[in-house]
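Supplementary Text 2. Reproducibility record for the structural model of the 290-residue chain.

All settings were left at their defaults, and a single model was retained for analysis rather than an ensemble. We include the record here because the model underlies the residue-level annotations in Supplementary Table 4.
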Amino acid sequence: MGVIDCHVHVNPLWEMRPEARQLIEGERGDIPQLERMLRDPEEFLAYLDRVGVSRAVLVNYVSPEVVGYTEKANEFVAQYVRGHEERLIAVGSPDMRLRDPPRGTLRRLVELGIRGIKLHPAHQLLWPNAYRPEEGGFAPLREFYEACEEFRLPLIVHTGTSIFPGARTKYAQPMLLEDVATDFPDLPIVLAHGGRPLWMDEAMFLTRRFRQVYLELSGVPPSRLLQYFPHLERLASRVLFGSDWPGPGVKDIGENLRAFRESGLSADAVHQILEVNPERVFVPPAHAPS
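Retained model, structure tokens:
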């Protein structure tokens, strides 16, 4: 099967808001090389070969107010993976203000080549359970989740803090997803970043409670993994590896992967997290019924 990195940011960096881009540039000294990879999938695939990764989930989303990405990010990632679908998995999102009917919007994304949806509450500025009557009754959000479930689109949700200017971390508390997991039992939900660092216990609780919820480890320092998640071994069948490259603090996927393998988990748990579980979540193709 090979290693699958479930959280890589191959995004149109040139479309970022200046203050958001400054954050990335302040952390990395290889922006020209990075931009070459972002414009040429062959260069990125050669990099994956060097670091020992078979496939990568390319996480894109629409966030005009905070990061700057518009619906063009969906077109970018769909074009980027074209011809490389066996190794690159395109993730996108609608504009979460949901001014257009969600079902039709998601159908168009599936037809474009999108195979997973990213929800970033802290950057898209919404409560993930706002569809509930007691939480405001935003009906289009319920329709959005229904369509994700119907079209077999795994939902990756940012949980935990964000340091990007304008981000609102209050929206990214994992327990807000308890409603979503309860109301949409056939929707795979990936808790990106495991609630780091404020709500890791909440992320673990949701993963234990709901069969369709997965704990994803991107952005968590692998050397401290078992310090943050001391019972991770018990949940190995529903945990996913992700690097968060080239995000702040993640210099190299290969270094991240080596540190994960040396974290103290058993060989069987490492195999499940790197290879088996990602196949279950991401490899079956999205399906948009007529």
